[in-house]
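Re: How this chain folds, sequence and tokenised backbone to follow

Filed under: protein folding, tokenised backbone structure, sequence and structure records.

Contents: The amino acid chain and a row of whole-number tokens, matched residue for residue.

Body of memo: The sequence and its backbone structure tokens, given next.
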Amino acid sequence: MTPSFETVDTDLDHPEGVAPGPDGRLYAGGEAGQIYRIDGGGSVEELASTGGFIYGVTLDAAGNVYACDYGNASLMRISSEGRVRTYSTGTPDRPMRVPNFSAFDDGGNLYVTDSGEWGDDDGVIYRVAKDGTTVVWTDLAPRFPNGCCLDADGRTLLVVESHGRAIVGIPIRDDGAAGEPQRVADLTGSQPDGIALAEEGSMFVGCY
């Protein structure tokens, strides 16, 4: 069966990431810090602006947006009413540099990829608790960690390593620590960027 596609809107400023909200609307970011909210008819509202450069966006169950803001080297939190505040800047020993994408686990912890410099293989993944407390969760997937999502059982974080041309799975241990990454897909010859999961566990990978 051939997939069906439709254009929702074209009046956006470099929407690097897109995510559905609990209100049924779509959310995306812009390269001047815009946070867009798009209804089913394609009507676009600028909910807020961080003044930075937005990569991935993720929403919680209350409709708050968590935006990876490359321009401000921060993870920003935007309330459903449009109030903006800095949620995390990384850790004192490893401040955020290129926050790229994030994903929640069932406990409300947010995993945030920081890609580092292309070719330097110095990326890390943070784990941000519900109170904003941030730790470097792992530095063992360093080859430009990019898009991420949890697997179907919520026990493994799937991460695109763009410079490694691969998808790695990082187990989430019972104590919350990161396990040893395992390569789950070799994408040699492509340039993988984003990832999403179907209900039955299939991975869909956007390739630049």
